[in-house]
Structures are given as C-alpha cells and as structure tokens.
Amino acid sequence: MYATRHEDSRGRYYDEAPSATRTPFQRDRDRVIHSTAFRRLKQKTQVFVAHEGDHFRTRLTHSLEVAQIARSIARTLGLDEDLAEALALAHDMGHPPFGHAGEDQLDECMAEYEGFDHNAQTLRIVTKLEVRYPNHDGLNLTWELLEGLVKHNGPVVGPDTPFESLPAAFREFPYLKDLEPEQFAGPEAQVAALSDDIAYNNHDIDDGIAAGLFTIDELMDLPIVGDVFRGVRVEYPHLNDRMVSYEAVRRLIGLWINDLTGETMRRVKEYNPQSAAAVRAMDVPLVAFSEELETRQRALRAFLYERMYKHYKVNRMRSKAKRMLKDLFDIFLQEPDTLPSPWRMDATQATEAKRARIVCDYIAGMTDGFAMDEYRRLYDPEALR
C-alpha cells in the first residue's frame, strides 16, 4: 500500500528503453554493483586503515551488510526489496579514503572552495563522475534512487537549512528541486538509512573487540548490549570471547531489526499512509526505532565514540591519514601537472576553484592503498615511479 511501486517510478533523466528482464530498481542495483566507485569500496575503511588487518570491515563489506539488513526489513514491511538494496549498496560510494578522517581532511582542504560532503559526493559520482555510457555522464539512476541518496539523513532543505547552504554538489545538480528536498525520503530509503545505523553500531562492537580497543567485560554496563552479552555467556559458558562476540552481535542485530519493524508498523497504523508519496509528505519519518531503543542506544554510541573512535591507536591512524591527504591535496593544487591523465588536462586549464574540485574528486576516489602509494611516489625520494 505504502511501498514504492516500480511500475510508478518517475523514471530517469535520460530516456532509456525498459529492460525485458529487470525492473527499474533492479537495473539501478546492477549499475551500482558494476560501477568503479563501488569496486573501490573494497579498500576503503571506516575506522581502521586497510593494511591494519584483513578481518576489519571495509566500506564494501559494510555496504553488503547494510544491504542484507535492508532487504530483510523491506521484506517484512512489504516494501520494494530491490530499491532498498540498491540504496544500501550505493549509500557510501562518496566516501574518500581513510574513513571519517579522510572526509574531515578533505572538507578542511576544500574550506575555501565550498567544502566536501560524502553524501553530496555520492550524488556527484552517480550523476557525473562515473562515465560508462556513450550518451550521458553518470549512471542515469531512477528518480527514486537519486532521491534516497540525497536524503539519506532526512530532508536536506528546511527552515534551518536553506537551499543556498547546501553542499556544492547538491546545488549544482540541475534537478535537485525535482527531488523534493524539503520532504522525507521514500520508505525504502528510510529503511536503508536506519539499516546503516544498525550495521555500523553493532559491527563496530565486533571490530572494536577484535582490535583490542575494549573488552566484553567493559560492555556489560551498557543498556541492551550488556544484557545480550551476559545472556550469551550464561547460555554458552564454554565459548571463547570471539565466539561470544559473534553470537551477541548476531542477536543484537536481530533485536534492532525487530524494534524497527515493530515501531514502523505501529506508525503505519497511526498515520495510515496510502502511498510512497504520502510517506514523503509526513511530518515525521515513517521508519523509525522506538523511543525506548533510541534512548538506550545513545549510551552505546557514546561508548564507541570514547573507546573506539577516539582511542589513541585510531587517533594515530587518523593523524597520519590526514597528513597524507593534506600533502596530496597541496601538491596537486599547486602543481597540477603532477596529476595523471585525464585529471591533469582538466586541472591545468581550470580556475583555482575548479582545479581544487578536480583534485578533490581525484583524491576522494582513491582507495586507502592507492592514496598511500601516491604519497610515496610524490614524497619518498627512493620511490622513482
């Protein structure tokens, strides 16, 4: 009833013949999977740098986990699974190397040139930077996919966020106002956004324990999380901590999913939206966690912020990563002839502001490993190539 119907899709900005075998949203998903930016996610990390270990999550494995959660929730709620999956797979494509440290540094480097925002960069990638088709730039995704990516964090225009304050990539997209930026996203996009929260909250617990940043015992006082870990230890006293972590995180993901589907079904009964358009026009999100879970998960977020994201080992990696990206940005901006083709040709002929955006696009597309290699090639006297 309130699901997005692929038969009613608002289409693509460049006309294409329909597929004989796939719905529009299935084609979107496939285009995302086959894109260069998606493949690069395999060596872009969230908290750790790629070489720190093979078992920590990358942007790619995280996106796959978000997609699995989103499909499960969409299926339970009777939504379009393919659209939810496509949005989940694409949501992190705009992230630069080195996780949030990389984003912070690029935003700082671009401070005089309208900044950097990874959600805006995702839109820039799928509408401009991915060049795979002879008749247009970008992936030519459906209206529904673009709308969901732009509004990953909710409405982007409102009383406190006028259109003029939006990131440059949003403002420069000629069809942004067609995406109804003042409204909420459709139901599948809301599912994908909260599936992202479920995935990173719980998987950061797993990665933090594996990295030795904190122990299971230190989680025991946290609401919900402590109860689940304690229950696993009582039920399986013979398990080692690694197996306890696996089982507890699996249960926690299920708990988060059940809460979200339960609260969303409650809101469906309360607000009774009759279409995806009605969901967008609501004053509150349709898809949400319960107030009780929202309150309790704040303690987990605060714990992870202090014990993981601000851990001195992570801070050291952040510091090194930020220095590398700053040095790369500076040399490419000042000496554009050090850029490879085709970036060099565009940058050498551009104004300073446009050259800065070209350099930013080049760096944002790098994997962790490629960024480190580029840094060595440019700053290590013994690296001749």
Automatic annotation (TrEMBL):
Signal peptide: none annotated. CDD domains: HDc. Keywords: Hydrolase. It holds the Pfam family HD_assoc. Residues 1-15 have a biased composition (Basic and acidic residues). GO terms for biological process: dGTP catabolic process. Residues 59-201 form the HD domain. GO terms for molecular function: dGTPase activity. It comes from the Bacteria. Residues 1-24 are annotated as: Disordered. Transmembrane segments: none annotated. InterPro entries: dGTPase, dGTPase-like, dNTPase_2, HD/PDEase_dom, HD_domain, HDIG_dom, PHydrolase_assoc_dom. Belongs to the dGTPase family. Type 2 subfamily. This is Deoxyguanosinetriphosphate triphosphohydrolase-like protein. It comes from Hyphomonas beringensis.
